[in-house]
Structures are given as C-alpha cells and as structure tokens.
Amino acid sequence: xxxxxxxxxxxxxxxxxxxxxxxxxxxxxxxxxxxxxxxxxxxxxxxxxxxxxxxxxxxxxxxxxxxxxxxxxxxxxxxxxxxxxxxxxxxxxxxxxxxxxxxxxxxxxxxxxxxxxxxxxxxxx
Length: 125
Prior knowledge:
Layout: H1 28-37, E1 41-47, H2 49-52, E2 61-68, E3 71-78, H3 81-92, E4 96-101
Antiparallel strand pairs: 1-3, 2-3, 2-4
C-alpha cells in the first residue's frame, strides 16, 4: 500500500549524504601570516585543475602545482612568483612542480571591489 500524499512511506527515512569535507592543508593562522610575511593570498586551496583554472579570478593569480602526502595538488594564489616560491618552500620543503599563470581575467585593482551604496536623496517639499 502506498502512503498518502505529503507523508513519508513507512520504514526507513531517506538518508542524506553529506559531502566529504576536505582537510585543510593551510591553517587559518598560516593563511593570515602569509598575507603579512609573504604578501601572498591563497584564493583556492587544494582544488582540482578545473577549480583553479577559473576566469573569474584576478589576472595576477598563479596556479601552484605541488605534491603533498604523495598526492598532486593545485592552489590558486596571488603574489609575486618569488614570494610564492618562498612561501611554498617554507611550508612543504620541496615538492613544488610548477608555478604558472592563472586564467583570471579580472583586473587586480578591481578584485573584491564593491560598488558604494547610493544614499536616498531627500525630497524637497
């Protein structure tokens, strides 16, 4: 027999699967420290090649290809090439395969720009 409309069928409740949460390689302290110590910002951490090859990113972003725990990983970061190399070398002590230009098309000075809100003008009257 079927259950009436709007009611769940008797038996097991449907199981919802939560997506596996990735373990972060960079701690929040390291992320904040990278901005002050190296002048670098990590935009996408441990993503696939498709995730880091987005065009809605700043044009000065780099794709870093490296090995961590015997797995090839990709990050999308901003900064100078030398500072990026220093940051990844200090963190992973090697394992860096390449530092390549990202696919971003947004001007760096417009990245994260929010237009100012317009204030309502008072009516004279």
